[in-house]
Write a structure and sequence with these properties.
Chain lengths: ~250, ~200
């Protein structure tokens, strides 16, 4: 009951916040009350532009490394977000994606910079860049399993509050500098969804009532639009841009 | 066009309703232990139950639907998930519950997104017509950001728990002054999506 009260108070106050700074202080207080040391909330983009959010209190040294080395593009935690719709612990990441040597190095650097274990809530909203809200403890501290349900809600409601504040101020500025990702045709997207579900060209052809050659052409055209070489990259990119929602892959 | 289907007009929607139960069965079948060929029907699907249904204008096939139950009558949260609420389960003439939200798995990705948006909007239009102010629902946590981004103001009734392999929580959604406008923008709909006259037949 105590923890739910904490979440209720957070939801109420986050909904009333009028500035990102207020939301940041509120978030910092709640994150500590739940027993975490750090949080980061944002869209998965390297530069903030209109309507995109990034706030957090990760150690400054780590944030600098993250930006300098452009780790955001292969941060294993953010990659893992593309494979799930539900919140996950960072120690589950090796079971979710194939962690590369470079990514192992990212994890080592993070730990050296003071970032211990963590929990991430992926945020997928169709038509918007993917985002997430992460909670972490200092290196050497244990993650408390009991607070993770509260963290899921704090993550969702904090993201919505931040999104609302950024959109409100964004709508008062020019909106034409928001980079638009390439768009797939409906048929290309249908093929990508089925590929994401692990179907072969033959299966996709049968399900959509078209020939396997046509499926192949749709996938090739989609790869060309995104400038990617493999089907895996294509699926990751469509999920990243939220042209494809997890609800679709999971048939919710 | 989203239709309000209930006791007085269910005869007109017999095929659509049967189709809806079939699609619901296929959607819940992604959870372990469900057979995809079984229709989803439970004790809350009665002859007087209200549904919001969008059917294909050409084939009349079910595309998307949701079930609406008044809080003053038996409903899902009070009967099956009271443990998801750490505050008293809201009850009153202006509180309804939505359940069995379903979009046909046969549709393409964009259509599914579009239909979810239209159904969120239809629920608001139905609420305004019926004097409903709040809907409660057991919502999968991963779906919550989309529902809030669409425009529904949400408040948790308790902490989420894992049900059928996924985290779900009881949420109270409230119609705010800007809800309708935000939902319209999200759904890309300038006008009404609910069948006109629906408000009269169920008032």
């Amino acid at each position: 009951m105590g923890r739910f009260r904490e979440v209720q108070a957070f939801v109420r106050e986050a909904g009333k916040s009028t500035k990102l700074e207020d939301l940041y202080s509120l978030m910092e207080g709640t994150v500590h009350a739940l027993g975490f040391d750090y949080f980061a909330l944002g869209h998965h983009v390297n530069v903030t532009s209109n309507n995109q959010v990034q706030i957090g209190n990760y150690p400054p040294a780590w944030m600098e490394t993250l930006h300098e080395r452009a780790y955001i593009f292969d941060d294993p935690v953010l990659m893992a977000c593309q494979t799930t719709a539900a919140g996950f612990r960072w120690d589950e990441v090796p079971n979710m994606i194939n962690v590369t040597k470079r990514q192992e190095n990212i994890l080592r650097c993070a730990s050296k910079a003071g970032m211990g274990d963590g929990f991430t809530v992926p945020i997928h909203i169709p038509g918007e860049c993917a985002g997430s809200c992460s909670f972490a403890v200092r290196t050497g501290r244990e993650l408390d399993e009991e607070v993770l349900p509260s963290a899921q809600y704090v993550g969702c409601f904090a993201f919505e509050a931040a999104r609302r504040l950024v959109r409100k101020s964004g709508s008062q500025r020019r909106r034409d500098d928001t980079a638009q990702p390439p768009t797939l045709t409906n048929r290309q997207l249908d093929c990508v969804v089925l590929v994401a579900q692990g179907k072969s060209d033959g299966d996709v052809a049968q399900l959509l009532g078209i020939s396997a050659d046509t499926v192949h052409q749709h996938i090739e055209a989609a790869k060309q639009r995104f400038g990617v070489a493999t089907r895996t990259q294509l699926v990751v990119r469509t999920l990243f841009d939220n042209q494809l929602a997890f609800q679709d892959v999971m048939s919710w | 066009m989203v239709h309000v289907v209930g006791m007085s007009n269910r005869g007109r929607f017999r095929a659509g309703l049967a189709d809806m139960h079939r699609d619901r069965g296929r959607v819940v079948s992604v959870m372990p232990g469900h057979d995809p060929t079984t229709c989803d029907v439970d004790q809350f699907d009665t002859p007087s139950t209200l549904y919001l249904i969008e059917a294909s204008p050409r084939s009349q096939r079910h595309m998307a639907s949701v079930r609406a139950l008044p809080s003053l009558r038996p409903h899902v949260i009070a009967s099956k998930y009271p443990h998801l609420c750490e505050t008293p389960v809201p009850v009153g003439p202006d509180v309804w519950e939505v359940s069995q939200f379903c979009v046909s798995p046969d549709l393409g990705t964009r259509d599914r997104q579009r239909l979810r948006g239209r159904l969120y909007l239809a629920l608001a239009e139905f609420a305004i017509a019926q004097g409903i102010r709040h809907y409660m629902s057991v919502t999968p946590v991963p779906c919550l950001p989309e529902v809030m981004a669409a425009g529904w103001h949400a408040r948790p009734l308790g902490l989420p728990r894992v049900v059928g392999g996924q985290p779900v929580g009881a949420i109270l959604y409230t119609l705010m002054p800007d809800t309708l406008e935000t939902l319209r923008a999200f759904a890309g709909s300038a006008g009404t999506v609910l069948e006109s006259g629906a408000e009269n037949s169920f008032a």
